[in-house]
Amino acid sequence: MFPKRDDTSHRVLVADDDPVIRRLLTGIIEREGYTAVTAVDGRAAYRILQSDADFCGAIFDMMMPNLNGLELIRYMRTEKRLMRIPVMMVTSEQDLKFTAASFAAGATVFLPKPFTAAQFQITFRILVAERRVAA
């Protein structure tokens, strides 16, 4: 396990409209020693971010109702209190343009679906390590 106890938050925002994916990601995040705060769609994640910036990372599904992952990242990159939170984009979209669009919007890491628990765990560790480097 990576060391994770430092001065930053130990909470991760997870926004995905698929309840199975939310449960899977929450379980892995919690086994890594972090707390997952979940949102059922982009609008719910946006509301959380408007009132709370205390996250060491965020994980967004690209395609969600009401507000998609790209729009959430763009919002975060315009808010000083949110711009240092690293973001992982996950998507089942197979077109490479979505990978490029994610990084152009400000994503830190990108993980295509389907993924294994091990693939997510490695990518998650990269995500939270980025917060420690940026802090």
What would you say about this model in short?
By secondary structure, the chain is of the alpha/beta class. It is built from five helices and five strands. It has helices at 19-31, 42-51, 69-78, 96-105, 117-134, and strands spanning 11-15, 35-39, 57-61, 87-91, 109-112.
Please give the structural blueprint.
Elements: E1 11-15, H1 19-31, E2 35-39, H2 42-51, E3 57-61, H3 69-78, E4 87-91, H4 96-105, E5 109-112, H5 117-134
Parallel strand pairs: 1-2, 1-3, 3-4, 4-5
Helix pairs in contact: 1-5, 2-3
Continuous helix count: 5
Largest sheet: 5 strands, parallel
Average pLDDT, rounded to a whole number, is: 90
Helix content: 40-55%
Q: How do the strands line up in the largest sheet?
A: 2-1-3-4-5
CATH superfamily: Response regulator
Could you list the spans in which at least 5 consecutive residues all have pLDDT below 50? 1-8
Count of individual beta strands: 5
Proportion in β-strands = 15-25%
Anisotropy-based shape? globular
Please report the first level of CATH classification, the CATH class. Alpha Beta
The secondary-structure element order is EHEHEHEHEH
Structural class: alpha/beta
Q: What is the end-to-end distance? A: 20 Å
Total of domains: 1
Q: What's the architecture in CATH terms? A: 3-Layer(aba) Sandwich
- If you compute it from the alpha carbons, what radius of gyration comes out, rounded to the nearest whole angstrom? 13 Å
Predict the CATH topology. Answer: Rossmann fold
